Structure formats: structure tokens, C-alpha cells
Amino acid sequence: MKSARFPYARHRHGTPSPTTPALECLNVTVRYPGADAPAVRNVSLTVPQGSRVALVGSNGAGKSTLLKAAASLLPLTSGTIRVHGSPAGGCCHRVAYLAQRGDLDWRFPMTVRRLVLTGRFVHLGWLAWPRKEDHAIVERVLDLLQIRNLAERRIGELSGGQQQRVLLARAMAQEADTLLLDEPMTAVDASTRQVVRDVLRSLAQAGKTIIAATHDTHEIEFEFDKVIHLTAGTADDLSSDRQPISAISESV
Amino acid sequence: MNWLLAPFHFAFMRAGFEAAVLVGITCGVLGCYVVLRRMAFLGDAISHTVLPGIVVAYLRGYNLFFGALISGLLTAMGIGWLSSREAVREDTAIGVLFTFMFAVGIVLISTARSFHDFSHMLFGDIVGVTSLDLLVMVLIAAVVLITLILFYKELELTSVDPTYSAVVGLRADWMRNLLLVLLALAVVTGIQAVGVILTSALLVTPAAAASLLTRHLGSMMVLSVMIAVVSGIIGLYASFYANVNSGAAIVITCTAFFAAAFAVHLARRPRAKSAESAINS
Q1: Does a structural domain hold residue A4?
Q2: What is the ipTM metric for this complex?
Q3: Could you say which of A168, A250, B84, B186 is the most buried, measured as most Cβ atoms within 10 Å of its Cβ?
Q4: What domains does chain B contain, in order, with CATH numbers?
Q5: What separation in angstroms does the CA of B128 have from each of A140, B9, B199?
Q6: Which residues in chain A are closer than 8 Å to B170, comparing Cβ atoms?
Q7: pLDDT greater at residue B81 or residue B238
Q8: Whole-model pTM?
């Protein structure tokens, strides 16, 4: 895959190595402007490449904030975050972020196919138009998430579950190595749940790293290698690992 | 057919038709982003804030177009800067700035000899365009079109999903500032056609009508341009034969198209709903 001639952001790559953790947080604190208490307080955790990690906690526990900080959407108050060895935001094409559905203007006149194609834009950069291979990737992803029949539908006409599939399709079209998913299973129908679960499994098999924030612990132990519990902004290891991953560590 | 061709015997009417097409293209295509990104108030504000620029240009004997252009660009940048401070909400900043600028314009007008000299800027005078005006309109239309084509996918992505565009390193605020500059340019051409007070109608109404009828941004832009251009031409005929103000006639025609589009939209919806319930049952 050719890289963009005029990329949106200057890439600050660390040295790529399979042993470099996908996500490394060290004493991360994030405080929103004007807030009394930090949303995330002194969290340290390491997620090795190829693992599936769930961030679990109630509303306001700091799960989404931590994901947003990792996606470089929020500045850190203190601490450091490294994604694939680079500072957060330094290698944006390797990280896909699936926001909660409300972040998107669903009334915008756009078809499902076009929205999925926007996942390719980071590889194109300025002054470049989608190429044949980009369209081919989009078609493949549409099939994988079983939304080919929706391809020409306007995004405003989708149900909640369909919206979630489309957003996951875009994240996959980006062909990122690490997926940050904010509440991927919230308010979706059973069939979407199944499709999302299958896709996440196949992504993990392909060596991708998945970090998902969720408050839904239903069946979670079967889907993730590791569950990290966040309470009032601090991280705590809740689960015993199904497969022990010694490299994962958290501290409060 | 004679009545259709009769206006073309006059040079000022031919210039008016050319101006209507150029303004329709510029405002119609850019209006799509104004509508989709909920910038209608901003468009209205920029069109009002060019007034002091026009008056100063008139008093100093410069081309009014350039006076409008400079104050339009200054306002666009000022609003962008003020709202990025996050001290006040954007609509509040716009409200404060645009009424102030308009008031300054009125004060300046009151120092001039007569109000009448500015009536063509306040209410538009599309048949009064000079060849220099037409040249500026061509340049602005070209700049707007080329910019929208070159940055099509970035403008589209930052409009539909600014969060995701930030994740991939695409700055939504850059795209917004780019649109503000283009908006200032479009307003300058719109003023010649329908005047300071009605320019925002050219930016909003054709695009709003088009948005009710299409599902793609590209086709919305094409339809919006068509509505704006046809409204401009119909408005010109109305002013020629009924001797009414051309700017007002253009805006009323745009609104008629919007009403028709709204009716089509309403007529389609119950059918879509009943089809949906038939599938579900």
C-alpha cells in the first residue's frame, strides 16, 4: 500500500517491532477544563499487540476518556501515552477509533458506501482521490459486515445496529493495527451483536489489537483476553485472565 | 417566444443574465455546506458585515466590490478567531459582531450625501453590473469551484464526522476557516445580485430545497446550482416585465422552489413510511 503523498498529519513513527506494545499508558491523568475531578486518574496499563482488552466500568468511570486520549482527541493533564511506540496521534493511520454513534451527523447526505470509503482517506491524504484498491477494500468490508444490501442507503435511514456495523466497517476499511472501540455493543440488536463478535474474533486472529470500552459485561469473558475495570477514573484488574498475558499490567 | 428573447436586446440585461448564472453557481454550490454545517446564521452575518467596507470604498472612490471583499474576509477571520477562544458561544459572537459592523455601516452612510447612493448595495442591482464586476464574479466562481473540488473529501469528512477526522489527523478547524473565506467571497458576488440584506437567501434557500430532494452531496450541489441559476434568470424576467426589484424577485423565486421541494418531500414521505410498514408487517 502506497503511503499518502501529502499526509494529513506528519507521522512520528517509533521503530516498528512486534514486541512494542500497541498501547502503553504511564500515570495518565486527564482532566476536562473546568472539571473538579480528573476523568482519568493516574492510570498505567500496557496492551501488547494482538490482544483483546475490555475497559469495563459504569458511566463516568473514565473508559471513553481514556480511549479518546489514546486516539489523541484529548490532551493529557499528566503522564504519557504511547501507541505502537509513538506518542498518541503520531501514527494515526495505524489506529482506528470507533466513537459513540452520537458524534456523527447522521443527517448528512451520504451513502453507506461513501461513509465506509472515508476510512481510506487517511491513507490518501491531501489532493488524492480514492483508487481502485480503496474501492475494492470497501466492497470487501461491506461483505464482511453483511451490509452490502445497505451500500446505497443514505446513512440517515439506518437503525442503531446498522449504524454500528457501518462504523465498524469504516474502522476496518482503514486497515488499522489497533482498534479503539467506544461502546461497540451498546443498543444493538442480537444479529449485529453476533456479526460484531465474529468480526472482532477474526480481527484478533489476524493479529489486530482490540481495546473496547463497555459497560455491558454480558458474555464479555468469552470475547476478551483481559478485562480492566475502571472506577472513578482509576484502573483495577478485575478478571483473571483466560489466557494469562503476563505483559498486561495495571496499577492504580 | 419573442418575450423570452426581448430582454437580450439590451446589453445591461445580457450582463444581468451572465451575473445571475455566475452568482447562482457560486452561492448554490457553497450554500450546500452552509446548510449542511448549520452555518446559515454565519452566512447572514457575513453578508451584513460587508456594509462598512462598501461604504468606506464608496466614500474613498474605490470599487465597492473590493471594499466588500476586504470587510467580508476580515469578518470571516474575526468570527473564526473569536469562536476558537471559546469564551463565548459562536452564535453569540456572530450576533455581537454582525450587528456592530452593520451599525458602523449605517453611521458611515449617514455621513455620506444621500442614502440613495447605497440602495443598489442594500437591495441589489444585478443589471447594473460592470464588466469589471463580471470579471471578479468569474474569478470568484472559479476559486470557489476549484477549492471545493480539490478539498471535496476533506470538507465532506469534517462535515459529517469531525471526531473521526481529528483521529486521522485532519484538522476540522482548518476546513472551517477555508469555508469561511470562500463564504466571504460568495457573499461579495451575492450582494451585487440581491443586496446585503437578502444575500443569505441565495446561500441558504436553493441548497435547502436541494437537500430535500437528493441523497448525495454531489447531486445536492448540482441541483442547488440549478435552482439558484434558474431563480436568478426568472427573477430577471420578472424585473424586466413587471418592473419590480430584481433582487427581491430572485429571492422570492428561490423560495417558490423551496416550497415546491418541500411539497415533493412531504408527498414522498408517507409513501416511504407505508412501504416500510408493509415490509415490517
Answers
A1: no
A2: 0.87
A3: B186
A4: 2-271 (1.10.3470.10)
A5: 57, 16, 17
A6: 8-9, 121-122
A7: B238
A8: 0.88
